Amino acid sequence: MAFRPRWWAASFLAAWLVAPVSQARLDWAAFEQYQPAAQLLRFNTAGASTAGTLMIWPEQGQTHYWLPMATYWQQRGWDFIVLQPDPAQQSFNPASEQPTAQQRQWQEQTATRLSGVLAGLESSPPLLVVAQGSAALWYQQLVDSTALPPPQALVLLDALPVPAAEQQMLAMSLARSPYPVLDIYSRPDSPLAWHNQRRRRQQLGSRGKTDYLVQHFAAPGMLEKQMASWLIRLGWLPLPPSAPDYLKEQLKEQRHETGISGSQNPGTGDNTARPGLRAPLANP
Length: 284
Fold this sequence. Notes:
Blueprint: H1 7-17, H2 21-24, E1 34-35, E2 40-43, E3 52-57, H3 70-74, E4 78-83, H4 88-91, H5 101-119, E5 127-132, H6 135-144, E6 153-157, H7 164-175, E7 181-185, H8 191-207, E8 212-216, H9 223-234, H10 245-258
Parallel strand pairs: 3-4, 3-5, 5-6, 6-7, 7-8
Antiparallel strand pairs: 1-2, 2-4
């Protein structure tokens, strides 16, 4: 289904795309793709089959870059889901050893909500999850506790817990994750990013996790291309026809060395998490 906001929502949509939700006040129900029971926007691929599903869990107070991506992923055969963020994800403490009854109830409700979303997905295409801000630690907790099935790959955007306990918890969870992780920072030189990265490097090194890549968030219009370049490395997307020959040969050699069998058709790929990511390729 194409991305078509109702006309009375279009006047303020552009402002929301570049401003935090707390300022833009997006009316989610203004979009025909909104599913109130699951509290999400869903944009299905226009193709007969689904190459994969991209599910995004945004942060309440961070800039949202997601709606402009819908058409990009639909055109490549992917279903595109944006969860409506919940202010409660910022008010509870995920590192608490004795969570309150309200926090436990919220976690159970969130697990039930997301389980329902994932239960409706096709079993074979890969699931790529993007977690922004505090959503990263909550999502990892749900996966680690087996309340949710693991994704085939995970993208983090400015997942920067402030308390040291939360930084350590997220670092440990990422280090033991069996799926590839792309960790993107809009301000990689900030003190908070430095502290989080230091803890993650320590945990990654101790567990020998190699399918982890850090990138700088270059520009809003480039985020989907950064993600797509990473998926090319995973073998889920093909190189674009316009890619130079040396990149095609480089990718072929890397896939041969790591045993990756790349996609032969645009918008399709296998559903296996692939190791050995290093640097982004040309923009697809």
